[in-house]
Write a structure and sequence with these properties.
HCY_dom, Hcy_S-methyltransferase, globular, two-stranded antiparallel ribbon, methyltransferase, 301 residues, 48% helix, TIM Barrel
């Protein structure tokens, strides 16, 4: 990954953005359903995030798994990268070559596949060996694409983090790890992951996603005090997902937005910033404005 004076800006929540546009992401495939049926819509969504100021397109591979899709999974994994690469190329054509447009191949957690809602609590009941077998082929396929780096994101399970760091360290591309849920909320589990991170010399960045902006700030501060890795933060909108009702609840009154938290996240050491669920191009544009203001103010001091 290339070092930047300002943080590298990732995109927002691809699946929830597609949903907000009226596309059906219900069922076990989530955004991969759109990737499967109409990949041009995925490319268009990536283009919207680039137009808003994002420099990284995160692929629609998060929920593409071999146990759900069989051999078709490899086709869709490769398609997800190709579509994002096309969008990045279009962004260069539109905005010029002064910007850097990258593709991050998304690797979602076991819970996002057959885990039946365990993608935030990480209560899988699987051994490391089982998790290794489950993740290995997907990592291998994505490593064999022209993605710029691999991003294991929304990881809620310490054993899963260990397995992914092992698999990612054995492939040639740069890679990053982003935790969430049960790890981010548990100081003991977080320190266990930090120990793993500090034993992974090729890991390019570590961070947190799909938690509120204030929670992400706390995790970034903890990480900064315990590791010299580059730090990543991709908070959600602050709204709350009601798993039972399958609907979003409003953010608590007075909740700090991602854009409002940007200055503190940069000051805390986050050098890769973006959004997660319910963060669309509008919020990414606001985040970019906040980042530019924060970094220009720091240069002026």
């Amino acid at each position: 990954m290339v070092l930047h004076a300002a943080p590298l800006l990732l995109d927002g929540g691809l699946g929830t953005y597609l949903e907000a546009q009226g596309h059906d992401i219900s069922g076990p495939l989530w955004s991969a359903r759109v990737l499967r049926e109409n990949p041009a819509l995925i490319e268009s969504a990536h283009a919207d995030f680039f137009a808003a100021g994002a420099q990284v397109a995160t692929t629609a591979s998060y929920q593409v798994t071999f146990d759900v899709l069989g051999e078709e999974a490899e086709t869709l994994l490769r398609r997800s990268v190709a579509v994002a690469r096309d969008a990045a190329g279009g962004a260069v054509d539109k905005h010029g070559a002064l910007e850097e447009y990258l593709v991050a191949a998304s690797i979602g957690p076991y819970g996002a596949g057959p885990g039946e809602g365990t993608d935030y609590d990480g209560a899988y009941g699987l051994s490391r060996e089982e998790l290794y077998r489950w993740h290995a082929r997907r990592v291998a396929v994505l490593a064999d694409t022209d993605a710029d780096f691999l991003l294991a994101e929304t990881i809620p399970n310490v054993d899963e983090a260990a397995v992914l760091l092992e698999l990612l360290s054995a492939q040639p591309k740069p890679f990053a790890l982003s935790i969430t849920g049960a790890i981010a909320a548990d100081p003991v589990k977080l320190m266990r992951v930090i120990d793993l991170v500090n034993q992974a010399p090729r890991l390019g960045a570590v961070g947190v996603n799909c938690v509120s902006a204030p929670h992400a700030l706390g995790v970034v501060k903890t990480l900064r005090a315990a590791t010299d890795k580059r730090l990543l933060a991709c908070p959600n909108s602050g709204e709350l997902w009601d798993h039972g009702a399958h609907e979003w609840r409003p953010a608590p009154a007075g909740a700090v937005s991602l854009a409002e938290a940007a200055t503190d996240l940069v000051a805390a050491g986050a050098s890769l910033l973006g959004g997660c669920c319910r963060v669309g191009p509008t919020e990414i544009r606001q985040l970019r404005t906040s980042i530019l203001r924060a970094t220009s103010d720091s240069f002026g001091q």
